[in-house]
Amino acid sequence: MTTSEAIYQQLQTTLEQQHVALAKELKHEILLDTLVPSATAIKTADLNDLIMMAKSSFIPDLFDLAIRMEKVDAAVCSVKLGMYGLCVDCEEEIEIDDLLEDPAQPRCHACRDHSRYHHD
Fold first, then answer.
1. Within-domain flag for 60
2. How far apart are CA 109 and CA 93, in angstroms?
3. pTM exceeds 0.90 for this model
4. Domain extent at residue 42
5. Residue 50 · residue 30 · CB < 8 Å
6. Is residue 75 part of a domain?
7. Which residue, 11, 28, 53, 78, could crosslink 103 as a Cys pair with Cβ 3.0–4.6 Å?
8. Residue 107 DSSP symbol
9. Three-class DSSP category at 23
10. Does residue 118 fall inside a structural domain?
11. What is the tens place of the pLDDT at every residue in 32-90?
12. Is the four-CA dihedral 5, 2, 92, 105 of positive or negative sign?
């Protein structure tokens, strides 16, 4: 295994751990904020429903948590598709330093600069 393969494997593991932790935190925060009338509704809701509930709550911290969950979920999906580390816009490789800073980074530096007003 090359160094870059080892780094990608570590980043993927980090993303999977973040995904589990964020989903758990999202459920917990929605329950605390009583956005749903019962704990059963939260336990049975799928991730997309939880994200929608959180984003529509107008609670800033919960909204930010939902946005991060979306980003991590997309990164985990890209791992499953074999596309992790490739820019979602131009499909060029994302710099390893950018992925080390944020393993869920979906865009290369050039695309982030080019479209920063559209994707922030």
1. yes
2. 10
3. no
4. 3-84
5. yes
6. yes
7. 11
8. S
9. helix
10. no
11. 876 666 777 777 889 998 899 889 888 899 999 999 999 999 999 999 999 999 999 99
12. positive
